[in-house]
Design goal:
By secondary structure, the protein is an alpha+beta fold. The chain has 14 helices and twelve strands. Strands 5-6-1-7-8 form a five-stranded mixed sheet. Strand 10 and strand 11 form a beta hairpin. Helix 11 packs across helix 12. The longest helix has 22 residues. The relative contact order is 0.12.
Length: 361
């Protein structure tokens, strides 16, 4: 088994690049007075704002994205709150991604601050994927004044996990022969596609770590989880054949979050929706597209999931507009009477903002 795992994807060199604390880092770079301070990007703590991003100094107090700003200020009274500037972040992201594309044409944007790079055929003149990663980190630091954490591995699955291993400003390299040992002690939640529901189901099978998961047969996993069970079996062994896709046709763009503690207050849910809507709006802006349809996803404490959608005659793209529609949709659910464990906001029926033409999806 170990030999098989070591061979998987050994011909590929994949990088996962994740800009550290991106929104806050842009502000801290441009304003020296903010450096080393607990910076929170998001809505006002005096109102019903939500945290969009927090510097590492603020995260040490337990502040994180999607948290109500009022709670963030209680956790970190000295936090400096800044209003988001999404056009500014988009411009900065484009500059960083331009550096990536100078080093390899195979760049897959995952979000405004995250990308996969396939450098298998782009090792010269550096000689190795690790050297390419070091060059990216050097250029992003020197040219943009930002830091980027990078995972280097034989596939996307392991590279993604590796990039989060030594944040901020980290470089973690997992060679093919190291994949098995690297994954074994990790919690199953670290694997792609394992959310709270799957994590809970696996725990009921006595599975908590990747090493535990390897002891479960593929047949049993498929019986319990369907096709997803085969993916779990593969991922536990470091198998991931997904290519880096440079062009991905989008039918929709969405963001969702699962809560550690179920929400039972409508006001708190609306604050989260505002944050999700801001994230969706940032994604639309980066692609210069707008949406005619907004969909709200609600998962109750008993895992029952419902969606509500509204289609507008004129496309919308702003976070406030999207949030307003999503909050109206929230009132068409039972969220006021039932605890909620997940909320999601999705924009679809996408159109080009500059031409107003419906994308042929």
């Amino acid at each position: 088994m170990m030999a098989a795992m070591a061979d998987v994807g050994s011909v590929r060199r994949i990088l996962h690049c994740d800009l550290d604390c991106f929104y806050a880092a842009v502000h801290m770079r441009d304003d020296p007075a903010l450096r080393g301070r607990p910076v929170v990007v998001g809505g006002s703590p005096e109102g019903r704002g939500v945290v969009a991003a927090a510097s590492y100094e603020a995260r040490r107090f337990g502040v994180h994205s999607a948290m109500p700003a009022a709670r963030a200020i209680r956790l970190c009274p000295d936090a400096i709150f800044l209003k988001p500037d999404f056009p500014r972040y988009r411009r900065e992201s484009e500059q960083v991604f331009a550096i990536y594309r100078e080093l390899t044409p195979l760049v897959q944007a995952v979000s405004i601050d995250e990308a996969y790079l396939d450098v298998t055929e782009s090792l010269e003149p550096f000689g190795s994927a690790t050297a390419v990663a070091r060059e990216i980190r050097r250029r992003v630091r020197e040219e943009r004044g930002l830091t980027v954490s990078i995972g280097v591995a034989p596939n996307k699955l392991v590279a993604k996990i590796a990039s989060d291993f030594d944040k901020p400003d980290g470089l973690t390299v997992v060679r093919p022969e190291q994949v098995a040992d690297f994954l074994a002690p990790l919690p199953v939640r670290a694997l792609h596609g394992v959310g709270p529901a799957t994590e809970g189901a696996l725990e009921r099978l006595g599975v908590r770590t990747v090493a535990d998961l390897r002891r479960v047969s593929a047949e049993r996993l498929v019986e319990r989880f369907g096709r997803h069970g085969q993916a779990l079996w593969d991922h536990a062994r470091g198998i991931d054949e997904r290519p880096v896709r440079t062009h991905r046709v989008r039918k929709s763009l969405g963001k969702e979050t699962t809560f550690r503690v179920d929400l039972d207050e409508l006001a708190a849910m609306e604050e989260v929706i505002d944050g999700l809507a801001a994230d969706v709006a940032a994604g639309l802006a980066r692609r210069s597209i707008a949406a005619c349809t907004v969909t709200l996803k609600v998962r109750y404490a008993d895992f029952t999931t419902v969606t509500r959608s509204e289609t507008r005659a004129l496309p919308i793209s702003g976070g406030e507009e999207i949030g307003r529609v999503a909050k109206e949709l929230l009132r068409r659910t039972a969220a006021a009477e039932r605890p909620v464990r997940l909320l999601g906001v999705t924009a679809s029926k996408l159109v080009r903002e500059d031409r107003g033409q419906l994308l042929l999806f």
